[in-house]
């Protein structure tokens, strides 16, 4: 009984497993900063006016307390002041002008830094996306689509704060802080030191608190990312969830995740809140010291009332930059962690790469030769063992075999999604590693079992095979593969919008569309991974006819599931555990009464 309960718990615990984000433990890393800066560099020119405006804004902010000091000591005070009200009015007007300048400067700075920041993020995002397009299948084998998405979205967004406010704010705060410290010390050295005595204490307390806050927010972020993964998976797998009546389980899991996220959020938020009072207390201590020691100095004629008021105004501006610099440090660490993940991604090199002297594949006849191919996806687990196949131009080859026997792997090597560990693949006698990938894939067409329909119109989806195709060409190929009639019966014909993955189309319709796409691109070698799902006889007939048109005059490789396709093939290759075990036409292989015979018997008993 106890064992069953333990087993149940284990099953429940293991049902949803999401990998966590990396923990931010890294400290500041200059090399990464330098790499991040390369994205900023093209915008240096745009940054110059922002920096000038920022300096003007900061200087006017620093100037205001000096005007106050002058007004009190030199105009207002009966002992030392002139009592000249015109001067007072002039000073007031000057002060107003300075506030206006500050306001305009702040507005301009925020607007421009946001624009520049967004441009930088855009170029990082584009760089990652462009890079992803070039990566080999091996990379995607190791990474779920979700984790790729997170890098392009979350990790790039995590850099937003740094690029939009961080850099300019850093300079502004440093200038403001240094300016205030210098002014305070120049006005009165001893008083300056006295009011700043709390700074190191505050710095120490806030640094340790910030560390806690950072980890607390990190926990929130991880829980958030787990919620996202679960959401993503739940939506994608909704059909299966409903079919297996797992909704309650799903909801309960989601509720637990949400609750745990809320708890972490509350904790992080409470820690964050405690930061304010610390600054306030420190600022209050500084102010007490100022008034206590300041009045003492005034009594001894070592200080003036005007200076005291100016001092207290500076003190009010003193803590803001310190606070912001602390926040910036946290931002920087978050950016470090994200950029590390981004760069790790960008540094990933395609395993299938073009040789430097790769030439474009000339117009081919279509003969293919697999020469003693050995291949493994993972070390010491060979997926293909010593495969040799000779295919003449225009021949059709059917690849058959049990699941996992290596059929798709052969196709993967022919498209050069992977390179063989041993042996060569030759097209018209040319090793495909010596030619450019683009020229290879232009002449080798691929029709996948899971026909991918992109969101857009039917026309766009067919045109994917040749982007500059005219409407007439599109209609011609659609007619040739028997797709025209069903397309015309859709609400907007060729302009009908199909949703992502083509959910509104039937399996057979999607197949016909993919045939039209392939026919339009007109490759000399065609690879076809036949859909396994059974379709009605009428569609089956249409597909058979379409296939005849599609295969005419081309060398073809088919992972065939339909008996009719297999029968029509010129040569059938039977694979078992990565080896070719039989080869010949249908009649020959049936007569052998070997693996092929067994497969046909088992699969087509009901045909
Ligand atoms: N991306 C991959 N990473 C690791 N191993 C893989 C990968 N793809 C396939 N394999 C392994 O390689 C072997 C051959 O797989 P392959 O996909 O070629 O089989 P198949 O004959 O096409 O199967 P099916 O008819 O089920 O599609 C299998 O053992 C499979 O587990």
UniProtKB/TrEMBL annotation:
Domain ABC transmembrane type-1: 50-332
Transmembrane region(s): 47-72, 87-105
Keyword Membrane among record annotations: yes
GO cellular component: plasma membrane
Main location: membrane
Domain ABC transporter: 368-602
UniProt keyword Membrane present: yes
GO molecular function: ABC-type oligopeptide transporter activity; ATP binding; ATP hydrolysis activity
Family annotation (InterPro entries): AAA+_ATPase, ABC1_TM_dom, ABC1_TM_sf, ABC_transporter-like_ATP-bd, P-loop_NTPase, Type_1_exporter
Localization, UniProt: Cell membrane
This protein's UniProt keywords: ATP-binding, Membrane, Nucleotide-binding, Transmembrane, Transmembrane helix, Transport
Origin: domain of life: Bacteria
Membrane topology note: Multi-pass membrane protein
PANTHER family the UniProt entry points to: ATP-BINDING CASSETTE SUB-FAMILY B MEMBER 10, MITOCHONDRIAL, ATP-DEPENDENT PERMEASE MDL1, MITOCHONDRIAL
Name of the protein this chain belongs to: ABC transporter ATP-binding protein YknV
Organism: Paenibacillus montaniterrae
Gene, per the UniProt record: yknV
């Amino acid at each position: 009984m106890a064992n069953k309960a333990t087993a149940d718990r284990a099953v429940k615990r293991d049902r949803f497993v999401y990998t966590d984000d990396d923990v931010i433990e890294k400290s500041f890393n200059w090399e990464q900063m330098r790499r991040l800066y390369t994205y900023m560099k093209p915008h240096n020119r745009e940054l110059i006016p922002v920096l000038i405006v920022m300096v003007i804004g900061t200087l006017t902010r620093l100037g205001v307390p000096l005007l106050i000091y002058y007004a009190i000591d030199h105009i207002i005070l009966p002992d030392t002041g002139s009592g000249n009200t015109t001067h007072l009015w002039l000073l007031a007007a000057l002060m107003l002008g300075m506030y206006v300048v500050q306001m305009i400067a702040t507005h301009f700075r925020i607007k421009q830094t946001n624009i520049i920041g967004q441009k930088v993020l855009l170029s990082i995002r584009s760089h990652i996306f462009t890079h992803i397009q070039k990566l080999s299948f091996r990379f995607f084998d190791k990474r779920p689509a979700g984790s790729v998405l997170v890098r392009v979205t979350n990790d790039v967004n995590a850099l937003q704060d740094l690029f939009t406010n961080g850099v300019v704010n850093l300079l502004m705060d440093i200038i403001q802080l240094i300016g205030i410290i210098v002014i305070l010390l120049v006005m009165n050295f001893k008083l300056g030191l006295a009011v700043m005595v709390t700074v190191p204490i505050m710095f120490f307390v806030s640094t340790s608190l910030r560390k806690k806050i950072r980890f607390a927010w990190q926990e929130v972020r991880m829980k958030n990312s787990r919620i996202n993964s679960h959401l993503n998976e739940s939506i994608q797998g909704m059909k299966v969830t409903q079919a297996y009546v797992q909704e309650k389980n799903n909801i309960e899991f989601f509720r637990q995740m949400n609750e745990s996220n809320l708890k972490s959020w509350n904790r992080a938020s409470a820690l964050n809140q405690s930061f304010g009072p610390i600054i306030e207390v420190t600022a209050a201590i500084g102010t007490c010291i100022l008034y206590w020691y300041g009045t003492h100095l005034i009594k001894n004629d070592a200080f003036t009332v005007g200076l005291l008021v100016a001092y207290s105004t500076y003190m009010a501006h003193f803590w803001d930059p310190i606070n912001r610099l602390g926040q910036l440090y946290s931002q920087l660490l978050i950016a470090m962690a994200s950029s590390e993940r981004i760069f790790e991604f960008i540094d990933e090199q395609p395993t299938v790469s073009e040789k430097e002297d790769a030439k474009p594949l000339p117009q081919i006849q279509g003969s293919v030769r697999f020469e003693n191919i050995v291949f493994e996806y993972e070390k010491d687990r060979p997926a293909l063992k010593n495969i040799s196949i000779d295919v003449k131009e225009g021949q059709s080859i059917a690849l058959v075999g049990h699941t996992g026997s290596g059929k798709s792997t052969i196709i993967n090597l022919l498209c050069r999604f992977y390179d063989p560990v041993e042996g060569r693949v030759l097209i018209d006698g040319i090793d495909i590693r010596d030619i450019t990938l683009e020229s290879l894939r232009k002449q080798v067409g691929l029709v996948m079992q899971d026909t991918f329909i992109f969101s857009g119109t039917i026309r766009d989806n067919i045109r994917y095979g040749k982007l500059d195709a005219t409407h007439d060409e599109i209609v011609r190929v659609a007619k040739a593969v028997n797709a025209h009639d069903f397309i015309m019966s859709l609400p907007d014909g060729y302009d009908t919008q199909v949703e992502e993955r083509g959910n509104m189309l039937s399996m057979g319709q999607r197949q016909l569309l993919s045939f039209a796409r392939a026919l339009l691109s007109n490759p000399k070698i065609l690879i076809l991974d036949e859909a396994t799902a059974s379709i009605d006889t009428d569609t089956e007939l249409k597909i058979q006819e379409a296939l005849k048109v599609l295969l005419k005059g081309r060398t073809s490789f088919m992972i065939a599931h339909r008996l009719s396709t297999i029968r029509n093939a010129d040569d059938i290759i039977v694979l078992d555990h990565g080896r070719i075990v039989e080869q010949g036409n249908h009649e020959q292989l049936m007569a052998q009464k070997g693996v092929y015979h067994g497969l046909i018997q088992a699969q087509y008993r009901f045909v």
